Amino acid sequence: MFEGRQAGRTTRDLGVLAVSRLFGTDGVRGVANRDLTARLALDLSVAAARVLGEAGAFEGHRPVAVVGRDPRASGEFLEAAVVAGLASAGVDVLRLGVLPTPAVAYLTQSLGADLGVMLSASHNPAPDNGIKFFGRGGHKLADQIEDQIEAHLGEEWSGPTGSGVGRVRDAQGEVESYIAHLLSTLPRSLDGLRVVVDCAHGAASGVSPEAMRRAGASVVAIGASPDGLNINDGYGSTHLEPLRRAVIEHGADVGIAHDGDADRCLAVTAAGEPIDGDQIMAILAVELREAGRLPGDTVVATVMSNLGFKIAMREEGLNVVETTVGDRYVLEAMKSGGYTFGGEQSGHVIMLDHATTGDGLLTGLHLLATVAGRGRPLDELAKVMTRLPQVLVNVKNVDKSRAKTSPELNAAVEAAEAELGDTGRVLIRPSGTEPMVRVMVEATREEQARALAERLAEVVRTAL
């Protein structure tokens, strides 16, 4: 199977798009003060206000935006630039301070704001930063709106003056309504659970431990001392070893790991074994189905979800709708099909009954509530699926545009798929931003998966 993505837009079996975009699959990202400058942040904010205003989003009322950030040092000057741009375009701004991305999405909706802006580079290292926009209702902007924003960058325009300029006020206290919302979604308390939560020195450092404690859990927080420079540094969902050690050291029932902006959730069992997004989705999908809250008995997942997840869902009588990689594409499929649950192996899990985007805190709380309600340890619940060995090889510095058309690669993929039959899977993915092709193979035996992945990677190197 082949999948292609170019600079934020995704296609499947349609080749690679030739048009690059400033916006990627999750906003605009880059090294702060080099790629993502204060000027660019200001211009993006002005352009966003103008585009939404011209589209009639502000018709009949004075526009309001909410702005949040993760604790990166660069977020301080980028926040100032975004706020300045919005206010100069006539938008009133509520400055939320440091809080998770899903909190900004929720508060955009709950406060009736016309626009939400989050400054974060998610799981990326501290020097990076990013800007993502949410429209009314807390939903990510459509590709065509982002394209219009990009087209308006740097244009001459005549801004408002006098009473027409936007006003700015601090609204850090609004995080309380987000915590209250999270707690209101839980079917039961977390009484009796001992939890270690790793906040990646990121945006969830204060909020996630507090929400879990209020839900009834005994909580140990690690990676919860952000200094602006240590976000994702050795902690969080991309570095599970500290969490594994802490869970064992404290005799905890479960470990929960977030990334820098807390839209992801991974977990660790009492024995320190990692539980990925596919396993979390499998556990929660069965729970939702049994509660009668899984429309169409369907889960939406990406092509990167483990084959074991799909087999497990089939055995549970559940359907899986497959999308290309990116939580925005999972969300699009959920909306178009009327589904309410989906996500990615990376831990982006979307629960549309309660949120408009992936929410690591919401996911973690519901996973803990399932453990508490079932009265069974996480490792037993995770047995709902058997994770097949999955090997990923990144082949760099190749002509990724030829990945679909290479006869040699096509023949090699067909041979590998014939060898695997129904017991495995091959996926070839050109990178969206680098001259690189990702080769992924799943099989019942890791040795077979690794051998086939290396064989295909060698064909990519020689044929492309």
Highlighted features:
single chain; 464 residues; alpha/beta; Alpha-D-Glucose-1,6-Bisphosphate, Chain A, domain 3; TATA-Binding Protein; six-stranded mixed β-sheet; 20 strands; globular; phosphoprotein; phosphoglucosamine mutase activity; Phosphoglucosamine mutase
User: Which ranges are low-confidence, i.e. pLDDT below 50, for 5 or more consecutive residues?
Assistant: 4-19
CATH architecture annotation of the largest domain? 3-Layer(aba) Sandwich
Using the CA coordinates, give the radius of gyration. Answer: 22 Å
SSE-based structural type: alpha/beta
Strand arrangement within the widest β-sheet reads 3-7-6-4-5-8
Q: What's the CATH topology label of the largest domain?
A: Alpha-D-Glucose-1,6-Bisphosphate, Chain A, domain 3
Supply the number of structural domains: 3
Q: What's the CATH H-level homologous superfamily of the largest domain?
A: Alpha-D-Glucose-1,6-Bisphosphate, subunit A, domain 3
Average residue pLDDT: 93
Compute the separation of the termini in Å: 17 Å
Q: Helical percent range? A: 25-40%
Strand fraction equals 15-25%
**DSSP strand count:** 20
CATH class of the largest domain: Alpha Beta
- Tally of alpha and pi helices: 14
Biggest beta sheet attributes: 6 strands, mixed
Overall shape: globular
